[in-house]
Design brief:
alpha+beta, 50s Ribosomal Protein L17, Chain: A, 3 strands
């Protein structure tokens, strides 16, 4: 019987699965979103949330436990300095799974695992960009032209 046997095996041996989760948690906390298969996202979610809870403790022992699992010191620093304070008032539920559909090729169900509060916000095309007309482009080109070319243009006008 499988009573109280937590977690999915995902078709991998224990060392491979553990290594895969360490890599995925490191990437997830670094990028704050991860596109993967649905079973992997479901298995990764409790591990990532446990790491964020460790970050909220702000003790040396918690930092060492995080360093034992997360592969990058920079990601651990980010976890304790920026991510944990962001979720200081939140009691769990730091991640969200968005189902994407099926992957071409093998039909695996895909999902995005992301941190709550790091939703994708597309930049508006109008902000920061001025529409340059022909006249502005011509003036810019004249500014970068050499002296003989400027004399030719002046003579032509």
């Amino acid at each position: 019987m499988r009573h109280r046997m937590g977690g999915k095996k995902l078709g991998r041996k224990t060392p491979h699965r553990r290594s895969m989760f360490r890599n995925m948690v490191t990437s997830f906390l670094d990028k704050e979103r991860l596109r993967t298969t649905l079973p992997r996202a479901k298995a990764l979610r409790p591990i990532a949330e446990r790491m964020i809870t460790l970050g909220k403790r702000e003790s040396l022992a918690a930092r060492r436990r995080a360093l034992a699992f997360i592969r990058s010191r920079a990601v651990v620093a980010k976890l304790f300095d920026t991510l944990a304070p962001r979720f200081a008032e939140r009691a769990g539920g730091y991640t969200r799974i968005i189902r994407l559909g099926f992957r071409d090729g093998d039909g695996a169900r895909m999902a995005i695992l992301e941190l709550v509060g790091s939703e994708y916000k597309p930049a508006k095309a109008d902000e920061g960009k001025s529409k340059k007309g022909k006249k502005e482009k011509k003036e810019k080109a004249e500014g970068s032209a050499s002296e003989p070319e400027k004399k030719k243009r002046a003579a032509a006008e």
